[in-house]
Design goal:
Distance between the termini: 26 Å
Pfam families: DUF1249
Number of domains: 1
Number of strands: 5
InterPro entries: DUF1249
Shape: globular
Order of helices and strands: HHHEEEEEHH
Largest sheet: 5 strands, antiparallel
Radius of gyration: 17 Å
Strand order of the largest sheet: 1-2-3-4-5
Number of helices: 5
Structural class: alpha+beta
Helix content: 25-40%
Amino acid sequence: MLSSAAMLSLRDHPLLDRIPSRSFATLMELYEGNYILMRRLAPSLRHLQDSNISRVDGTVDLHLRVHERSPYTTTVSMTHYFDLEEGAVEPDLLLRVYHDARVAEVMPETPVERFRLWNGDQPDPRSLEWRWEMNRFLNRWLRYCLGEGHRFAGCESQLASAAGVQR
């Protein structure tokens, strides 16, 4: 089993240079990268409460809501609330994390009309182009959130803090 660092280092592998960008193979690599970043953002994703907020001074709050849990997957939505008075929530992504396969993807049910990623008509959400663009956006957004210092602690961290246990 590869560590997260080892998985990230695979990006520099010469064989990956021969795979066309926006191919199914690179989409799978993107899904794996999204999983690694999600695990850094929410290490105890399976144990989070249904509604979670990450607050970092000087940044916009990051909200993560758990919609569905199963033994092998967790479905969540993630958003920033930029203007609570108007209720603006962009980006607002619906994500599925596959714990057994160690991948995470943006779900096709995500409303993306406001994103304007495409010139002209938006591609079908089941298409490779749609999945590539949305998951590339997720990857960059997760990196940004981590860079800002966002993180969702699991319930065991909250329990340890309540008990006065130092980690």
